[in-house]
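A further point concerns the way the authors explain their paired sequence and structure data. Nothing conveys this as quickly as seeing an actual entry. An entry of this sort, consisting of the sequence and the corresponding backbone structure tokens, reads as follows:
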Amino acid sequence: MKILTGNDLKTGAVTWWTGVGWSLDVNDSADVGEHGAAIIAREEGARNVFAAYVIDGEKTAEGVRPAHIKDRIRALGPTVRPDLTLKPADPEAVNWVI
């Protein structure tokens, strides 16, 4: 599975391509296949996102999981303050990163 990630142009928040727009939740990610570069060019040109790139991911029972630890950290949020992550009520959330 190939997914797109980037940053919101206004807030800098990590975003994920859903197939029709951008979401803060990695589980909303759509498989872009070989169309990632074209989507990035269109979305950055429209100033909807910046610093977008294609990454490998996998669909699991828990949702979409980026293949690389860097992108799992980006998907979850700060690791130094678990209360500020996107899953603050889940004590097992940091285990998802590793």
